[in-house]
Amino acid sequence: MRLRAQGLVKMFPGVRALDGVNLDLRPGTVHALLGENGAGKSTLIKVLTGVHRPDAGVVEVSEDDATWAPVTFGKPQDATAAGIGVVHQERNLVPRFSVAENIALQSMPRRHGVVDKSAMRALASRCLQQLDLHLDLNRPVAELSVAQMQLVEVAKALATDSRVLLLDEPTSTLTSQEADRLYAVVRRLRDDGACVVLVTHKLDEVFAIADTVTVLRDGRSVAEGRALSELSRSDVIDLMVGRSFADLQPDPTPPKDRSGIAALELAHVSTSVGHEDVSLTVHPGEIVGLYGLVGAGRSELARALLGLDDITSGSVLIRGQEARIRSVADALHRYGMGYVSENRKEEGVFLEQPVTRNVAVTVWRRLSAWGMVRDRSESVLLDTYVDRLGIRISGHKQLAGQLSGGNQQKISLAKWLAADCSILVIDEPTVGIDVRTKASFHTLIAELAAKGLAILLITSDLPEMVTLADRILVMHDRQLAGEVDNVAHDYAASSRQVVRYMHAEHVA
Amino acid sequence: MGEATLTSAPAAPPQEDSTTPSGLPWWANPRVGLLVVIVALVILFSALRPSFLNVDLTLVPMQADLSVFAIVGLAQLAVLSLGHMNLAVPRMAAVSAFAAGLTYDRLHAPLVVGLAVALVVGALIGALAGTIITTTGVNSFVVTLALDFGLLGLVSLLYAWATDGVAFAVHPAGMDALRFDTMNNYCAGPVCGPPVPLVVPIALVTVVAVGVLFRRSRVGREMLMTGSSLRAARLSGIPVTRRIIQAHALSGLLCGLAGFLLAINNGAFSATIGDQFLLPSFLAPVLGGTLLAGGAVSVLGTVLGATLTSVIQKGLNLLQFQLDQLQILIGVVLLLALSLDRVRHVLAERRGVRR
Ligand SMILES: Nc1ncnc2c1ncn2[C@@H]1O[C@H](COP(=O)(O)OP(=O)(O)OP(=O)(O)O)[C@@H](O)[C@H]1O
Ligand SMILES: [Mg+2]
C-alpha cells in the first residue's frame, strides 16, 4: 500500500501547524520525518491517523501506484483498520491495564464475543519477543519505567500488523542498545514491504536506517521524499533550521577541582527500591554522569535521593552536612537542590496551566513580595528562557499542553534552570529536543557548571553524556559497576569503557 | 507556496485573539452568559411582578441572602481549586455558628469576638478534614461526607446541651443593627448611604480577599497548581500536603463566616444554620465556570452564580411557587450547569489541550 498526502493544512488558534504539506510513503522504505521542535511533525502524524481532521488537503492510498483513492479517517480506529499503525509521541497506555492488555488493546483477539485471554497473551508475548523485551505480561503498565512503557507502545503498534507504521520519536527515552533492537524490527518490516515513518531528533539514527527524508519547517515541507544518500548531515540540519547552522559543541571544560567539600555525597546508600551500597560524590562545578541500561536503576536512585522513595541505610551529605530530604520541596527550599524528572507528561509540566506559571512555579518565592507574585517578573523570566532555549509559544497565556512535545520538555527544563539551585539532578533533559536547542542547552549547562553548579546528569544519550560529563558512573542492576574518567570528552574512548562496564558483571 | 505570511521567528508575537486566560474564546466564558441570564431574569420578574424591584421588600433582603450564598460558594471554591469537594460545608457552618452563639451566651462577648470564634472553629474543622485527607489518602468526597454526618449528630447534641431547645436566645449588642440596618440609616448631614445591608461590605471584602489569594498570591497559585496536577506539583517543589490542608482550612473558615452571617440574617444562632448550604455551594462556583476537576477557579463567576441563584429564588418566591417546586427548578439548573461544565471541557479539548 502506498499512502500519500497533498497540500495538508491544519490550523490551531494562533498557529498554522501544517501549511501545505506533501508526503509520499512508498512500500518497502524507511522514511524519516524531520524538523525542529514545533515544525509540525506530530501534527502531521495525527492528521494521517485520524486524530485531527485536516483543514485542507487530501490523503490518498493506492495499491498499484496508478489508481488513487482518497481516504478520510474520522477517528483513530479508522486508520488502524486501514492498515496504518502508529506510536504517538505522547504515551497512550492505560496505566491500570496489564502489559498484555495494553499491547492487544487495538487488536483484541475475541472468541464468542469475549476476549480470548490466551490468544491475547500469545499476541503480546510475540510482539515483546520481537523487541527482545522480557516483561511480566500481567504487570500493570503504571509500574513500568518510562523506557519500558515506550517499548510497550511500540509492541502495541506491532500488534496491529500494519503496512504503514508511523513512529513519532520512538527511541527518545531509549539507550542506543535498545534503540538498535527496535531498528532491527524496523528493518525487517521494511524488507517485508511495509513503509515505516520515523520521526526523531537523533540524526545518527536517521542516517543509519532511513532511505528517504521529508523535512518540515514551520509547517511546510521544505524537502519532500529526498533520498538520504544524496544528503549530508549538515545539509539536513540546514534544511531544518532554514539557514546555515554549525552543530557546535561547547568547549571542553577544564578538569574540576575536587579537593574541597563535595556539594553532594552519597555514602553507602541503600534504598527501598533495591540499590545497595551506592556511593558517589559531586563537587561544585562538576558534571557527573550516571549511565546504564533501561532498568539499571538510575532514575530510581535520583528519586530516592529526592525523598520520593526511601533510603534504607547510608547517608546523604550536602555540602558536608548530613541531609534528610523528604520531598522535592525540602530539596529545593532547604538544600538548594533541583530535580528535572524524566517523566515530562505527568511530572514535568502542568498541561492545563499557562506557560508562564509552568516556568515560574519553582521561583514564586523569589518573585513575590508580601506573598504576592509579580506578574511582570514572571513574564520577564519566561522571555529569558524562551530566548535561551528557543521555546516556541504563541503567547504567555498559552497552555503548556498546547505546545509541541519538545517545547514542553524545554518548559520543564526552564523551570529548574530558573530555580537558581546549587545542585541539580537532571534526568533525561533533552528527550525530544531538536539539534539546535540541544546545542544551546549543552552550552547553558556547561556555563552553569563553570559558575559552580554541581550536576548529576542522567541521560540515555551516550554522545550527550560524553559531551557534558566530567566523569561517568555506570550503573548495572542497581549498583555502580564502574567509573569512567571523561575529561578528554573523547567519544570513542569513553564509550568503549562505558559499554564494557555496562555489560560486565558487578565488580564487588 | 510563498504567499502565506508565516514568520519563522520562534515565539512569533501572539495575535492575542479574543481568548480568556484559559484559552477559550469569550463566548465560552461562562461569566458573560451568566450576566446575560441575570439581566434577562431581572427584567422578566420585574415585568411580571413590579414588587420585584421594591427596595425594602425584595432588594435589601436579596442582597443579604446573596452575601451569604456568595461566601458559601467561595467555601466550596476553596477546595474545588484542588479538585476536591467539601460535602461538610453545611455542618462546618453549623458548628461554627454554634461556637459563636455559645461565646455570646456564656461569655457575653462582643459581636466581633463571636465572629472571630466562628472563623477559627471553622478553619480548624477544615484543617482537620484536610489533614485526614492527606494522611489517609482517602478521597475528599468520602472524608467530608463522613465528617458532615458526624458533625450533624454533634450539632444537635451540642444545642441540646447548651440551650433548652434548638437555638440560643441571646442577642449580642450590635446584632440587630447588623441585621436590619442598611447604609441608608447612616447619614453624614443630608447625605445618606445607599440601601445596602451592612453584611454586604463584609461579603465584598471576603470576595476581594479570596480573589486576590487565587489570582496573585503564591499560596493560592500553588493550590491551583496542586489541583492541576498533584504529581507535577510535588515534583516542582510545592509543599502539596500543606497546600491541601490550607485550602480545606480556608474552606472551613468561609463556612464559619457564612454560618455567622446567616445567623445574623435569621436573628438567631440555631441548629438549622447551614442546612440549605450544600447545593448552593456547588451551584455558585460551577455556574461561574470553576472546573470540578481543579486547577482553575473563578471568584467573580462564583459571585455571579450566587446572584443568579438568589434572583431565581426571590423571583419564583414572588410568583408564589411552592418550596418543592423551587427545589426541582434549582436542581435542574444545577444539572444544566454541570453539563455546561462538560461542554466547556470538551471545547477546551477540541482546542487541543493534550492530556
Ligand atoms: N492541540 C494543539 N493546540 C494548539 N496548538 C497546537 C496543538 N498541537 C500542536 N500545536 C502547535 O502546532 C505546532 C506544531 O506542533 P507539533 O506537535 O506538530 O510539532 P512537532 O514537529 O511534533 O515538534 P516536536 O519535535 O517538539 O515534537 C506547534 O507550534 C504547537 O504549539
Ligand atoms: Mg512532536
Q: What would your notes on this structure say?
A:
The complex is a heterodimer of chains A (508) and B (355). In chain A, 53% of the residues are buried. The termini of chain A are far apart. Chain A is 34% helix and 25% strand. In chain A, α4 packs across α5. Chain A folds into three domains: 2-241, 3-Layer(aba) Sandwich (Rossmann fold); 262-336 and 421-508, Rossmann fold (3-Layer(aba) Sandwich); 352-419, no CATH class. By secondary structure, chain A is α/β, with parallel strands linked by helices. Chain B has one domain: ABC transporter involved in vitamin B12 uptake, BtuC. In chain B, 67% of the residues lie in helices and 1% in strands. Chain B has helices at residues 30-48, 55-80, 89-107, 111-136, 140-162, 175-180, 199-215, 218-228, 230-235, 240-266, 278-287, 299-318, 323-350; strands spanning 187-188, 191-192. In chain B, strands 1-2 form a two-stranded antiparallel ribbon. In chain B, α2 runs antiparallel to α12 and α3 (89-107) crosses α10 (240-266). Bound molecules: adenosine-5'-triphosphate and magnesium ion (MG). The site of magnesium ion has 6 residues of chain A, from α1.
Describe, in short, the structure shown.
Chain A is α/β, with parallel strands linked by helices and 508 residues long. Chain A has a 6-stranded mixed beta sheet with strand order 6-9-10-3-11-12, with helices on both faces. Chain A has a 6-stranded mixed beta sheet with strand order 18-21-22-15-23-24, sandwiched between helices. Chain A has a 4-stranded antiparallel beta sheet with strand order 2-1-4-5, with helices on one face. In chain B, α7 (199-215) crosses α8 (218-228) and α8 (218-228) crosses α10.
